[in-house]
Design brief:
Order of helices and strands: EHEHEHEHEHEHEHEEHE
Largest sheet: 5 strands, parallel
Distance between the termini: 80 Å
Oligomer: single chain
Radius of gyration: 22 Å
Number of strands: 10
Strand order of the largest sheet: 3-2-4-1-5
Shape: elongated
Amino acid sequence: MSKLYIVPTPIGNLEDMTFRAIRILKEVDLILAEDTRTSGKLLKHFEIGTHMYSHHMHNEHKTIENLISRLKAGENIALISDAGTPAISDPGFLLTRACVENGIDVECLPGATAFVPALVNSGLPNDKFVFEGFLPDKKGRQTRYLALAEETRTMILYVSPHKLVKTLAEFITYFGEDRQISVSRELSKMHEENIRGTVQEVIAHFEKIAPRGEIVVVVSGKTITKEPKKSKFSSEE
């Protein structure tokens, strides 16, 4: 039977490409790539000659019907993004859902994604967490912040470098300047950097040194203050 393969690709270091990912990309009939120019460099490095087809946020609604037809006709297709695991803040969900609805097998390979190493190396609690991805730019941003201000689990966000300082300033407004955070930059790459501390300490760092590259921000959840238990014995006679 035909199958859609969701194939993670390295977020920076090419050594993070798995043997199985390389084999699948060589064996499938078609590779769906977010940006064929970016993915072309990856495929060339690993000597993968499979034909690519552009599949991104601007055309995915229009291409799904054709892709489902090709899968039903017996083709095996792999989906990759520019970096990391497809459908995590990248195209992939719509096609995956369509495959499930049409009874087409979907297999997601384990592999690189940015938020997991950022969470693990943050030093913040990771037994329970919530992945927020990119916050809304304008409409709904304040509403989202008000909800997150009450979140007790560790939060993970993706932030563009040119918006980082502004976003951290918003953290002070909604989370307070003493909330613990970790900013991971250029994960797996040569200039990987992890800055940890309070919001105030981290914003001071990036006000001096302009942030660059791909950024993941991990924020500690709200601390719940437990009220002291009342004695079952009354102080009054």
